[in-house]
Design brief:
The protein is of the alpha+beta class. It folds into two domains: 2-32; 47-196, Calycin beta-barrel core domain (Lipocalin), CATH 2.40.128.20. 23% of the residues lie in helices and 52% in strands. The chain has helices at residues 2-31, 34-42, 47-53; strands at 57-65, 74-85, 90-99, 102-113, 118-125, 132-139, 144-152, 159-170, 173-182, 185-196. A ten-stranded antiparallel beta barrel has the order 1-2-3-4-5-6-7-8-9-10. Strand 3 (90-99) and strand 4 (102-113) form a beta hairpin. The longest helix has 30 residues, at 2-31.
């Protein structure tokens, strides 16, 4: 009986070793599969993520708002805290300031989708009730990220098309311009200058 159990134990150990080797080989093969390689590239920061990283940090802001093409600008000053999150895959943005409309607080997330080959950005703030979602590309000619979207006009309720342009100037400066399409014509509704906090 003891000899029989010993033989069974040796057979069991051999089977376990064989199973382990087979599973290891299968796992190695799946890691080298085209699907797995594509997924690894999808989740790895790219050159466009390095561009997003240039907007990381703490910034002092000065913003001009235009309610209509012929209106004088309203001026707002404030601060921005941008932080790379999730291994550098996203830029988390938090802004606050003061203007004639009162205290301003906003936050957003900026991403670059490696699969879709486009930038994607969301934004919310206390001066509205929408989630602004914009997508776009890097403009090599202007050295800027240009993203487009739309939101409902608070007055008419009709959709207003928007275009935002993020321009890296140098390690201490960048800017953001927003344009709105109104009556078939685009006008600049906002310009923000960002200076690195000391």
């Amino acid at each position: 009986m003891e000899k029989f159990n010993y033989v069974k134990l040796l057979v069991l150990i051999s089977l376990l070793n064989l199973t382990s080797i087979t599973m290891s080989a299968q796992n190695e093969q799946s890691m080298d599969s085209p699907e797995m390689k594509a997924f690894m590239e999808y989740m790895t920061p790219s050159e466009m993520h390095k561009l997003l990283a240039k907007f990381d940090g703490d910034w002092e802001t000065k913003t001009q708002f235009w309610m209509s093409p012929d209106s004088p600008p309203e001026i707002s000053t404030g601060v921005a805290h941008n932080k790379l999150i999730f291994n550098g895959l996203y830029l988390q943005m938090e802004h606050s300031g003061k203007s004639d409309m009162g205290e301003f607080h906003g936050m957003g997330t900026f991403a670059y989708d490696n699969a879709a080959k486009e930038f994607q950005a969301s934004w919310i703030d206390n001066h509205g009730t929408c989630l602004l979602y914009q997508t776009g590309k890097y403009n090599e000619k202007t050295k800027s990220i240009e993203i487009k979207g739309e939101f409902a006009d608070p007055v008419s309720g009709k959709p207003l098309k928007t275009r935002s342009v993020y321009t890296y100037i140098d390690d201490n400066h960048w800017s953001m311009d927003m344009y709105i399409m109104m009556d078939g014509k685009e006008f600049k509704s906002m310009h923000s200058d960002y200076v690195k906090s000391k």
